[in-house]
Amino acid sequence: MGICLDELRRMVIRPTLKHLRAWSAGMEELLLGTAAQESQLGFHLKFGRRHGLGIYQIQPHTHRRIWDDYLIHHPALASKVRGLASQHDFLQHPHSELATNLRYATAIALLVYRAADIDIPDPGDIAGMARIWHRVFHHGPVATARDFELSYARLVSGAPATDSTPRYTEGARPYPPAEARNSPGARLPSHPQGQPLA
User: Fold this and answer.
1) Domain count, the chain
2) pLDDT in tens, 154-176
3) Contact status, residue 136 vs residue 116, Cβ threshold 8 Å
4) I want to staple 55 with a disulfide (CB 3.0 to 4.6 A). Which of 10, 42, 106, 153 is the partner?
5) Could you read off the pLDDT of 7-66 as tens digits, one per residue?
6) Which residues are CB-contacts of 2 (< 8 A; sequence separation ≥ 6)?
7) Cα distances (angstroms) measured from residue 131 to each of 36, 76, 91, 158, 191
8) Is 164 part of any domain?
9) Which domain, by its residues, includes 108?
């Protein structure tokens, strides 16, 4: 399981798009679908020997092309994107930001689509999103637009609403109340063989 869908939407993708003045429901859904197809919503940040990184599996040469061929012509936008990157690590290891910085990776993924001058799809047009992803974002001969549709259906539109409260001890017996555990007459827990723990 990757990142919680609702949290990825509300805490990463939507605020990043709004920060860059690029929010639309269609672009939000396209980026969610891209993350679902490329990394199973963040389950993988690097697939074996593949060169892509992060939840969108952006390749270093694509990252470099966005800066060298697109952002160079949009200095105000470049400044906003650079503001999403870390201060020092970006200068030494710029591509690692794609794996470690969700908002920065989202901005670059947006710009991959924007640099291709796409028409933003309607939020319900999954087949249209799949075609755009396959034409602009997909690398290699293996995956198809149908794969995008299936990933979207399974991880985005088919995902249940979540209660994102952490459950660290799911299935475990709850502890007795603190006063029962710590009262002067409380018994020590037993060792598996029935002997009190020392």
Assistant:
1) 1
2) 999 976 555 444 444 444 444 44
3) yes
4) 42
5) 999 999 999 999 999 999 999 999 999 999 999 998 877 765 567 899 999 999 999 999
6) 35, 39, 40, 41, 42, 43, 55, 155
7) 15, 30, 35, 20, 60
8) no
9) 5-157
